[in-house]
Design brief:
With 730 residues, the protein is mainly alpha-helical. The protein has two domains: 425 residues, no CATH class; 141 residues, Transcription Regulator spoIIAA. The protein contains 30 helices and eight strands. It has a six-stranded mixed beta sheet. It has a two-stranded antiparallel ribbon with strand order 1-2. Helix 8 runs antiparallel to helix 20, helix 12 runs parallel beside helix 24 and helix 12 runs antiparallel to helix 25. Keywords: Membrane, Transmembrane, Transmembrane helix. InterPro entries: S04_transporter_CS, SLC26A/SulP_dom, SLC26A/SulP_fam, STAS_dom, STAS_dom_sf. This is Prestin. It comes from Acanthisitta chloris.
Amino acid sequence: MEHAQEHEACLEQTQRYCVERPVYNQELLQGQLHRREKTPQTLRQKIAHSCRCSSKKAKSHLYSFLPILKWLPRYPVKEYLLGDIISGISTGVMQLPQGLAYALLAAVPPVFGLYSSFYPVFLYTFFGTSKHISIGTFAVVSMMVGGVAVREVPDEMISVNNNSTNSTDLFDYYNARDTKRVQVAVTLAFLSGIIQLCLGLLRFGFVAIYLTEPLVRGFTTAAAVHVFTSQLKYLLGVKTSRYSGPLSVIYSIAAVLSKIKTTNVAALIVGLTCIVLLLIGKEINLRFKKKLPVPIPMEIIVVIIGTGVSAGMNLKDSYKVDVVGNIPQGLRAPAVPEVQLIPAVFVDAVAIAIVGFSMAVSMAKIFALKHGYTINGNQELIALGICNSVGSFFQTFPITCSMSRSLVQESTGGRTQIAGTLSSVMVLLVIVAIGYLFQPLPQTVLAAIVMVNLKGMFKQFGDIAHFWKTSKIELAIWMVAFVASLLLGLDYGLLTAVTFAMMTIIYRTQSPQYRILGQIPHTDIYCDVEDYEEVKEYPGIKIFQANTSLYFANSESYTSALKKKTGVDPCAILAARRKAQKRHAREIKAANELRKKAVLKLTNDVEASAKHEIADDELPVNGKFADSSAPDVSPDEHEHFVEPKTSIHSLILDFTPVNFVDSVGAKTLKSIIKEYKEVGVSVCVASCSGPVLTELTRLNFFDDTVTRELLFHSIHDAVLACQVKDGSAS
């Protein structure tokens, strides 16, 4: 009782509205409205308008291209500077070891990782719109670069071992091999940068939407497995070839297992020790995040300790532990990338450009949403394009946003890209002044840093359980992206995943949900009749809704679902009528033949028995017998025998979810209207949006039989019109 009273009180407090107006169809509504006059511009006028320049427009374009001009003059030094300095130093001490480590993934000498951690980071400060992301080397992109470098410049370890044992020859070979791989990596950076720059200038920032979150997470998880397996040989200190392309993960694991007996125990101990220290450091940073002023820079600590231990114990000579080796002091002179390599690496550059942009823009959006500012996707493309293309002249390989460094840069108080600039200056100091100090650093330490930084990506395996509960289609996208990238390689895997994601879009449009709607009593609100008990259908009226647009791919399924849901199939009804007509015609024909035979027999009997008396009631009257079993029905009366007949007189198609209609969809809609009209069911369309109405007009949908009077402003308008029409018809 109390619950009922509360419900009534709630209803009394609910706002109400009452509107009295005519029942509007499109013909009537358009007749009462006055369209705004729009003068269409010619192509010449559009070009002239876009080329027109004013001081305000020039300033706007300049600020858009160089965002630093907008925020730097307003930079609040007292509020932001200290946080940016702390953040810059914290990010910088991560940039150093990660730059060295990810260079190994890219199959180039470690110093090129330092170059890639300086030039692009410095350039992004001027052109980027995000205040918090950390640009530089990233595991996934580095792995993709390394795969291309190894494919174009294969590792011929076996032939070298067989042909030469001279250390000088081996050194010259590795030096020549690394030089060629650097050329491939630099060309990739140049080409991917040009692609990103062109996409940004052409306002193609929307391409990132095709890399959905499940796809990216499945792809990066597979990339993490690739990265992990590629670092096993450095962790164990074994000599194996590096593989790329399909099944490279399996080949890499098999190669490591085949050389497992040659494991360098010293390298393994150093590597495992570093992994334990890094995991402990990350756990401390996570648990005491609020109490620590800045995260403990465990990576640089491990690098310093590893370098000191290696130099003090002479691990290279005493225990044959592989070290970083020569780190040239100072910056290299600019050089033009190898243009002749472009045809061989073009497809890979496209994949790297799109993956790099999607990584950067997704992280940028997260931070922008958190801190209340906006980013420009097209400008981010331009910024990344400049960072990669210009950086390639200074021997950098492709870069993007690093998730781990970005989180550190934001959590340590970074407010602007001043923090990124400071981190790049720290890398510059190492390149120019103290880079040689890291020459004894064991490669197993860098492998440990890479492996521990994959921890966050491996946690993405938890997505399987999450998507299983929320969306099976997104789970399928995740699994296809993961399996394809794992087995086919990152390039073909990405292409396969994107293709599959596009196919799921087609599947969803071809397999939408179809509903029959009914009215909530005493309202103009219509809901699915299967969802709510209170919802009732109007007698003789069916309201059909499909949550998809109407176009060539789903027009047939739309028609089939309409017939199934409404229970009215015009083709079946017409076929049944034709069948009934034929059956009735056969019955009439058979009756007439029986009648003729009876008359003929009677005539013969009369002639043969002329002397016998025949009762008047046995004589045929007008050629008919009263007791004849054959019915006397004229062909005009066949309509009384025709079945089935539908009890529905009106069908309303709810076009609220329809975003567009193509020529096939328009023909399908017109066919539906005509077919149902033949069986006595009038069809009308409700809630058709303006763009869809414009498309129908352009496709010559309306004619003498199909007019705008069949289109209604809302479902309720259509229902009321159908009721009036049925009342007048009856």
